[in-house]
Amino acid sequence: MNFVDIAWIIPLVPLAAFLLIGFFGHRTPEGGGYIAVGAAAIAFILSALVGYEVLSGTHGDFYETSVAWLTISEGVVLNFGLYLDNLAVLMMMFASFISMLIFIYSIGYMHDQGDRKRRYYTKVSLFLTAMLGLVMASNYLQMFIFWEIVGLCSYLLIGFWGFRHPKGDQASAAAASAAKKAFLVTRMGDVALLAGLFVLLNAFGSLDYSHMFSAAAIAQVDTSTLALGSLLIFGGVIGKSAQFPLHDWLPDAMEGPTTVSALIHAATMVKAGVYLTARSFPIFVQSTDVMLFIAIVGGVTAFYAATMALNNMNIKRVLAYSTLSQLGFMILALGAGGYLVAQGIADGTAVTGSKAFGYTAGVFHMMNHAFFKALLFLGAGSVIHAVGTEDMRKMGGLRKRMSITSITMLIGTLSIAGIPVFAGFWSKDFVLESVMVVAEGSGTAAAIFLLLYILALATAFMTAFYMFRLWYMTFGGEEGEASKHCHGESEKVMTYPLIVLSVFAALSGFLILFGFNQALTFNWAGPGSEFVVGGGGYEMLDVLDKIFTSPFAYLAIVVALAGFYAAYRMYNVRDVDPGRFNKDGESTLYQLLQRRYYFPQFYDAIALKLTYPIALGVEEVDRKAVDGTVDGIANSLTGGAQMLRRIQTGFVQTYAAFVVGGLLVLFAIIYLIGYIGGL
Amino acid sequence: MIPLEMFLGLSAILFAIGAYGVLTKKNGIVVLMCIELMLNAANINFIAFAAFFNDVAGQVFVIMAIAVAAAEVAVGVAILLNLYKTSGTTDLEEINVLRW
User: What DSSP character marks residue A254?
Assistant: First the structure.
């Protein structure tokens, strides 16, 4: 028996946990927490078995099984099934693994939440179900259904404290409004995504990955239709992965419990957009313009979000901006790699080796980021749990009191900052490398990519700076006012997941050296059998050679170290006062960053100045014209009935008179017909 | 022998009187009596044709109809009696509680 034959069980395990906890969670210890952990563990073990089988190539490029679900018209069938390739199993493995660790951590973190624990574990189990369903789906429609369910879970969990918040009513209102914002802003992207699916369904007559990604099917579709569908699908990515300009919901989403931020808004759900971009690669790469657009959105988001992390004082918000920025990196890498592939398709030349590397870089960074960002969020959660505040100015000096948290978080910081040998170094270097490869070309696009490279390099500097700033403000220096209340290290159920994650955050980069890169390669045989993209990964030595002979790799390291040094001087040695650069928080730039480039105000202005008057006008039309018509019809009917009901006198004799009269008339007619007929 | 037309004429006159009574009389008892008149007009037709055609089926029908009519009158009078008990009248125009 092959493990892929039972792969359909994987999402059903957390689903069973969802139902079990939902109905009976309050009767089990920890509000069903152990059930959720068990379900996630089973899902992970099965995912790992399936993953091993698929990654080892037992089933060729992908394994697919599906049943017909809806028949729309002749030949257009929507299926429901599984599509397991390297990308899908990679997502399955790290989503279930990180979920398992976060659920374990939650047992400690959510311990004193009382009756709410059942609600929490119910929702996270549903989330895991949907996340697994999303990556295992065999077609876009099925993916879209789960895409919406993860969005729903995100909404529910951000608003987890939407009533009776431990910190009072104002915090409740903030949580509820953040949940609403996340739901509405991502919904804008989802509408675009749905429109994209209509365009593609119309063009391909199917939404199955296996059909749509075949070169023969793509060749039959008009390129401008493909580009339109691609851009609309990417609209969904912009919403879900919080890219510019729909990024603003993610920082607000930090109102949820920290475990939720780690699980949904760092490690898994926001990766769904990156996953969708990687998944749709065969369609996206048919147009260089689409890929250029994707790269620009990614590069701008990476830079833009990183700037806002520079001066934020809230530990979770800094991590949220950092997540935005890293998601931008992934999208940038995919865009850069895809741009070269698209160019190759346009020119009819093969794209192999380092030119097809952007895809690998993006997916690899997605995996590494899941580990180190989950670690950082859980570490931040551990700190918040201990000191009871999210304000970093009140922390400081926690290194002695919370040694395990501080060390694991330091590993996460080193990893995300891109210090060599830690996981983040490898993938971030690949991202920069893949952008540089395009920038080395000629033409306008190359110039744009050079600009994006500079932005990415600046982002790398800022990443190192704000992450070390975070670490020093929290763990270094003198004890802040909140630190004095700290009861010491968190319990083991919280620190053990941190330790496991820190091992991965430190070492997962090495996976690329041991053939894992093969799993991250995008293979696509284009029209005309001679044209091939990707085609196998790198050998271990090639990768090392590539990294350590490229001057740009050293540049990236120097930039990261510069960021570290700046943070070290400002926030550890403190001989450089950060106030010198921003007039003690009075400068325009500082205020601009604090106010998130006025984006929330911008959203509000759109809502109040544009949407609200339109809504009022529509309401007027609805009430006067539409309701008027409907009411008019109803009124004329009731009025007519009022008059007609007078016929029903209620006197039997009147009715009898009608019967007799009617009969007489009938007889007369029959007689007349007979008389005329007789003539 | 009395010709068939005589019977049919009697029957038609009886039926017309009954129909007139049903349509115009206000007293419920009188209306019931008029209905009986109409039924018996039909019965006379049956008997007349049975005799005329020498067919016994008509007589059987009439006996059946008389039995049913007896039962029907019993029910009708019982309803009227109850109506009289609750509303104090048998005037059909007074009995209008279920009207609009």
Answer: G
DSSP A443: S
Res A534 pLDDT > 80: no
- CB nearest A651 (choices: B19, B22, B92): B92
Measured distance between the N- and C-terminal CA atoms of chain B, rounded to whole angstroms: 56
Within A483-550, residue ranges assigned H as helices are 492-507, 516-519, 540-549
Taking CB atoms and an 8 Å cutoff, what residues of chain B touch A658? none
Residue of A nearest to B26 (CA): A653
Map residue A75 onto helix, strand or coil.
coil
Determine the Cα angle at A93 with ends A17 and A157, to 5°: 50
The verdict on a CB contact (< 8 Å) between A650 and B98 is yes
With contact defined as beta carbons under 8 Å apart, do A109 and A31 qualify? no
Q: Is B92 on the interface with A (CB under 8 A)?
A: yes
Nearest to A500 by CA among A589, A436, A411, A420: A411
CATH topology of domain B4-87: Helix Hairpins (1.10.287)
| Token pair listed for A398 | 């926690």
Complex ipTM: 0.78
pTM equals: 0.79
Nearest CA in chain A to B97: A650
Q: For the segment A80-122, what is each residue's pLDDT rounded down to a tens digit?
A: 899 988 888 889 998 999 999 999 999 988 888 888 889 999 9
Query: What is the three-state SS of B5-60?
Result: HHHHHHHHHHHHHHHHHHHHCCEHHHHHHHHHHHHHHHHHHHHHHHHHHCCCHHHH
Each residue of A280-336: pLDDT tens digit? Answer: 988 888 888 999 999 999 999 999 899 988 888 889 999 999 999 999 999 999 998
Q: Is A117 within 8 Å of A227 (Cβ atoms)?
A: no
Which tokens belong to A409? 């978080």
CA atoms within a 13 Å half-sphere pointing along the CA-CB vector of A456: 36
The SS3 assignment for A648 reads coil
Mapped onto helix, strand or coil, the DSSP state of residue A518 is: helix
Report the C-alpha gap between A567 and A247 in whole angstroms: 26
CA A37 to chain centre: 22
Instruction: Determine the residue type at A425.
Output: F
Residue A102 near residue A146 (C-beta atoms within 8 A): no
